[in-house]
Write a structure and sequence with these properties.
This protein is mainly alpha-helical. 53% of the residues lie in helices and 9% in strands. The chain has one domain: Nuclear Transport Factor 2, Chain: A, CATH 3.10.450.
Length: 70
């Protein structure tokens, strides 16, 4: 698998898990360490660490209506 294919596969895994609101699969996309961060679109959506990132995604799942990414 080429690097581009690996990147596309990861993005597809992310989108599929996010739209399915599958927190376990979504967190599996990220490195299994606490040294991760996510920047969302909201003013308060700068998260550092697995716990904080997971809380952000769970909140997004409760508020989001998206069921696919383009």
């Amino acid at each position: 698998m080429t690097e581009e294919q690996e990147i596309r596969s990861t993005l597809e895994d992310y989108a599929k898990a996010y739209c399915a609101k599958d927190i376990d699969s979504l967190m599996h996309v990220f490195e299994d360490c606490d040294d991760i961060s996510v920047i969302g679109t909201g003013a308060d959506e700068l998260c550092v660490g697995r716990g904080s990132v997971k809380v952000l995604f769970l909140r997004n799942f409760a508020e989001a209506t998206a069921n696919e990414f383009e």
